[in-house]
Amino acid sequence: MTTTQQEPQKIYLKDYRAPDFQVDQIELWFDLQEDFCRVRSSMQIEKTNGIVKDLVLNGVDLELEAVHINGHRIEADRYHLTPETLTILDVPSKMTLEIQIKSKPQENTSLEGLYKSNNSFTTQCEAQGFRKVTYFIDRPDVMTTYTVHIEADDKTYPVLLSNGDKIRSEILPGGRRSVTWRDPFKKPCYLFALVAGDLGVIRDHFVTSSGRTVNLEIYSAHGTQEKCHFAMESLKKSMKWDEERFGREYDLSTYMIVAMDDFNAGAMENKGLNIFNSRLVLADAKTATDFNYFSIESVVAHEYFHNWTGNRVTLRDWFHLSLKEGLTVFRDQEFSMDLHSRAMIRIDTVADLRSAQFAEDAGPNAHPIRPDSCYAVDNFFTSTIYEKGSEVIRMMQTMVGRPGFRKGMDLYFKRHDGQAVIIEDFAAAIAEPNGQDWSQFKLWYSQAGTPEVRVKESYDAAAKTYRLELEQTCAPSPGQSEKKPFHIPLVIGLLDSKTGRELEIRSGKAIKNSEGQWLLHLKEPRETFEFTGLENRPVLSLNRGFSAPIHLKWDASQEDLLFLLAKDTDAFNRWEAGQKLMIRDLSKMIAQSKSGQTPKADDGLLTALGESLRDESLDPNLKSKLLEIPPHSYLWQLEDEFAAEHFEKASQSWMRAFAVRNESTLLEIYKRFHGKNDKSLHHTHMAERKFKNTALMFLSTLPSHLDLIWNQLQSAAHMTDYEAAFALCLDQDGSKREDAIQHFLKKFEKDSLTMNKWFALQASAENGLTAETVQTLWSHPQFNAKNPNRVYSLLGRWGDNLTQFHAGNGRHYQWLADRVLDLDRINPQVATRIAGAFDMCAKVNAESKAQARRALDSILDKGLSKNSYEVVSRSRQALN
């Protein structure tokens, strides 16, 4: 690799030092004008380190106008200004520091800090955006109370919002309005928020467990308010659930959500004023799928739960981001499980984990849950920090049980409310009241990679003893060539090989938790567990509920896996058995395709899954999940080399074989559920719709049923059916594909949010034309490179479409690399997300790797932001 770009400076966890100053309180005055914004701040600051003389403040893209200390203006010789800092020299131990700056939010395309979009001012301060608002000590362990005054033209910006509770509103001369907000709770600056615009609103209220009334408000663009009601109901459910499950009551008198079209993230938990990407607030049957509704419910809950796990107790530094994000993901998953089917939510969670986080662990950008270093803290917002972090907390709950976990959570809040803490503080709070020693378990936070556990079984009929030998390893990852053994809690069951009945566990090493689950604690590189009193060889059900986020290397017989598929009492492991069988079959079919043979699906598996399809005792949701093809991103991890065309051929061949074998049953299922309970959002009816559309997906592989797809597209009563039919039309040959594209465009071209689906589904198609389609859509009049949703819908979905992005021996890599460079100059956070597509290139063929090297080299010397440089350079190094 050759590059002339200077490597950005790394920051390290080991270099953490407590802040030299604390801010006791801050008052802010915002003067919002059409072509600029003026901000005046007044801070009460006190030294915490008597040795330090100078105060260093962070600030980016700010025009400094004045600095006052204790009422006296200081001149330029008393401070030093750089593009990223303001250093005030020789400051007193206590002072009132006043700073006035001028900025241009209208020109801020990074959507970080204070920016203007669609005629509204808004903010995004996590992780380090507050330094684009005003000069401040921009780090999460500097917590203070905020009083905020916002002044703007009343006609243009009638809605002026900030954190906390509104304490004053007045009309000023010249048609301007001033509003004052005060948040009495100390918070880090990344939780600051401001919104100014002309917005519609819906209002409701919630009565807390102690009898207080909380005003609830959701703001969105005029004309979209009616799409906010589902989000409002989700918010009220979240507030009630957190009181009942974790004893957490909301603490302010107002809770606000604002939906914005131009927003880098999904949502942001700013204290009392959440700012959401509009796709996670706005919903109606015409434009939102069942998945969209579920996502809204989940994310509204996630941001609300942050009020305690993130806001009241926050993180000391960004290396400990999973302290709040892993914990809050765990909490929103538990919320969804309590409202819906626990087993089905768990299956979806693990499928997503394997597709995204396991791939991240296996790629060049693998990192621990608590990283040791980085170039840009914005790059910490990964699946590892969030989803794997959640899995570690789930293991804690599994080990101590629900009551023990609640006891630990209560201690955590009691001990650390109002503090900025670290992951070890949380782990200690859960461990101590439950008598746990987690010195080894905490390696999950410091070691990257997905552990692999190899399984060997034996049965001694004479001794009536079953022996289980487990061996754990973890592959090297960037910066970590050797790994220590993890502490892996495995939930286990033994089943009678004839009836499927649960057998009694008799083992000195097995421990029963409060939920009645039997656990094995694997702590050594290799351990053997013995189970006695067994009349016949049992069938093993291991890692039930996916109790540990690991790869199981287990050469279970086809007979045992088919038995588990049919009989296991653990719904997750029933699905898991089907996935293992399908992965084996697809791997065989990929090998057949590579050798020039016609891929042939296994008859036994087709028969078993066909029987599950016809089993009326099974939940339709589980039936759908049993038929899900493992995602290519997961299969990629299991193969030595990713060959796009062979993966696609194997998947399509398997689906066709199943459809041929079960054609009449699939057609009967489709007809039975088509048009049934179309408007219901009950999870049972959502499951039926998913089951019906799964049947349609298989039928679409048979030419005789293609009319079903087109008819559903034209007659769909809701977006779930419309999107399913549209996606299937895109994978067909002939004029119907183009007809479907125009049908969608004509129907929704004026709905910007729904048009994201139009871009995303075309980028996700597996029709051999996707690359050319994506490149054409980049220049489409409806595409806007400054809107993150549009970019993620088009380029993000294409990068995830492995069989299409990696087709043609890497001939599409240069085009995407050029787009990363374009985006980096507009919005580095968005560019970084898109650059992640190159993580997969380490397993492509030699010609494709050469193309990837050339593409990445061509942008590495073009002055990338530190965000993009970190991801691109690691992907490039993996290709050496």
**Global geometry:** globular
DSSP strand content:
15-25%
CATH class of the largest domain: Mainly Alpha
Helices and strands: which structural class?
alpha+beta
Distance between the termini: 7 Å
The CATH homologous superfamily name of the largest domain equals Peptidase M1, alanyl aminopeptidase, C-terminal domain
> So how many helices?
26
Rg, Cα atoms, Å: 28 Å
Uncertain residue segments: none
How would you state the average pLDDT, rounded? 97
CATH fold label of the largest domain:
Zincin-like fold
How would you describe what is shown here?
It is a single chain. This protein has 880 residues and is an alpha+beta fold. The protein has 4 domains: 17-198, Immunoglobulin-like (Sandwich), CATH 2.60.40; 316-446, Orthogonal Bundle (Neutral Protease, domain 2), CATH 1.10.390; 452-555, Immunoglobulin-like (Sandwich), CATH 2.60.40; 620-877, Zincin-like fold (Alpha Horseshoe). Helix content is 39%, strand content 21%. The protein has an 8-stranded mixed sheet, with no helix packed on it. A 5-stranded mixed sheet has the order 17-18-19-21-20, with helices on one face. Strands 10-11-16-13 form a 4-stranded antiparallel sheet, with no helix packed on it. α17 runs parallel beside α19 (752-764). It is globular.
